[in-house]
Design brief:
Elements: H1 2-32, E1 34-50, E2 53-63, E3 69-75, E4 80-82, E5 96-102, E6 105-112, H2 117-140, H3 145-162, H4 167-181
Parallel strand pairs: 4-6
Antiparallel strand pairs: 1-2, 1-5, 2-3, 5-6
Helix pairs in contact: 2-3, 3-4
């Protein structure tokens, strides 16, 4: 009977480990690790697929605390990426990107994707898409106050996020605010 209980306890832990260990690892390394940089040195496409996309095997070098580098490797499936989300985003080959690790075990890294150049570019692109959507709505019906407000909000949020002093956005925001304030 005792063996059955142990077996019943092991099965859920095994299943949990299969599906959630890389997320737990990413959270742990982000919380307790030290920040450093890494560079992907090799990206090899495998014959295996995940969600209709090929799995890649990566080799990278990680800068240790003493400034020297050590080799590590991971794949699309095993990569620990923070923030935890339902996407696998790996930085480009031959670019420095931020990681965290526990000193003494530098081979186990979490990729801080949003802080990498690729992550910053992706964030900027996604915010630009909000402006593009609002522009299309505004161009379709420039008298709709809801569309005007959304357009203003999208441009202001973009400018706050990126400290952009884009004169076109600044002028357009002022023009739209005047239009909203004008009597209809």
């Amino acid at each position: 009977m005792k063996k059955v209980r142990i077996f019943l306890l092991i099965i859920p832990l095994f299943v949990f480990n299969i599906f959630f260990s890389q997320y737990l690892n990413a959270w742990f390394l982000n919380k307790y690790g030290v920040e450093s940089t890494a560079i992907i040195t090799s990206d090899e496409e495998t014959n295996s697929t995940l969600n209709d996309r090929y799995i890649h095997d990566y080799e990278a070098i990680v800068e240790k605390l003493d400034g020297s580098y050590t080799n590590t490797s991971f794949s699309t499936i095993t990569a620990a990426i923070y923030p935890i989300e339902n996407a696998i985003r790996i930085p480009s080959v031959n670019t420095h990107f931020p990681v965290k690790f526990i000193p003494g075990y530098e081979k186990n890294i979490v990729i801080l994707f949003n802080l990498s150049e690729d992550g910053k570019w992706l964030s900027r692109y996604e915010n630009q898409k909000l402006i593009d959507k609002a522009t299309i709505q505004y161009n379709a019906d420039s008298s709709n106050p809801a569309f005007i407000k959304e357009y203003i909000s999208a441009m202001e949020n973009y400018m706050k996020s990126y400290k952009d002093s884009n004169a076109n956005y600044t002028n357009k925001i002022q023009q739209l605010k005047r239009r909203l304030a004008a009597p209809q």
